[in-house]
Design goal:
There is one protein chain. 32% of the residues lie in helices and 22% in strands. It is α+β, with helices and mostly antiparallel strands and 227 residues long. The protein has a single domain, classed as Glutaredoxin (3-Layer(aba) Sandwich). The strands form 4 sheets. It has a 5-stranded mixed beta sheet. Strand 6 (106-112), helix 3 and strand 7 (138-141) form a beta-alpha-beta unit. The longest helix is centred in the C-terminal third of the chain and has 21 residues, at 200-220. The chain is globular and about 55 Å long. The termini are far apart.
Length: 227
């Protein structure tokens, strides 16, 4: 059986820092590399980013990291025939969308972990059934179709990059095991928060922290773009 992921110690420390920082800036999660500068100045810290991806959404459009340029996005992993946690996950994400979905600096990216079954047509129907068929900023995406060549392997590598546990499991409902993590990603591809979608308090935390990140992104953009 799939084990629920726990934050690594350095992630937990980052979260503690965020709670005590008077500026309320969200931490950047994941690995980091400290690189000395040639000019002898303060070392540069390079933070991990979400790896490059090429997906196909429910409209048959190719989406990449650049699709989310200038935006934050919330990523999750599901599959259309999931009889277990997916309905709960998507229900919680719908709550987030209802509150923040009209913000032009926010998008949603739901990856199917069953690309063999979840074709573009299946994803389109899934989006329609959620009432998101006309939502331009919520992508239900597959690594199949016109996306990655090795669809099944690619999506599990992506899940790992988002610190989400997902894998085939014949003993799990629907044949896949996953832990329902929501990952909050900033406009530079850094993961800024991880949330357990099955815990209402965690979803509340996401909705509390999301405006902090959106304000940070807005402040980073040129004044002309904010008008």
């Amino acid at each position: 059986m799939l084990k629920r992921l726990f934050l690594l110690p350095f992630l937990a420390a980052s979260l503690l820092t965020a709670c005590t920082d008077p500026a309320a800036r969200l931490p950047i999660l994941g690995e980091r590399d400290v690189r000395p500068r040639a000019d002898g100045g303060p070392a540069d810290t390079v933070f991990a980013t979400v790896p490059a991806f090429k997906l196909t959404n429910q409209s048959g459009e190719i989406i990449t990291n650049q699709t989310f340029a200038g935006q934050a996005y919330i990523a999750d992993f599901f599959f259309a025939t999931c009889p277990g946690i997916c309905p709960k996950m998507q229900g919680e994400l719908l709550k987030v969308y209802a509150k923040y979905g009209q913000d032009p600096q926010l998008a949603f990216l739901s990856h199917t972990i069953d690309p063999a079954h979840d074709t573009v047509a299946v994803l389109r129907d899934y989006a329609d059934r959620l009432g998101m068929g006309k939502a331009k900023n919520w992508h239900f995406a597959t690594t199949g179709a016109k996306g990655e060549a090795s669809a099944k392997d690619s999506v599990f590598l992506l899940a790992k990059a988002y610190y989400t546990a997902a894998e085939p499991d014949k003993q799990a409902p629907g044949g896949f095991a996953h832990n329902g993590t929501f990952a909050l990603v900033d406009d530079q591809g850094h993961i800024r928060g991880l949330y357990d979608s099955l815990n209402p308090q965690e979803v509340d935390r996401l909705m509390t922290e999301l405006p902090i990140l959106l304000a940070e992104i807005k402040a980073r953009q040129p004044a002309v773009a904010r008008q």
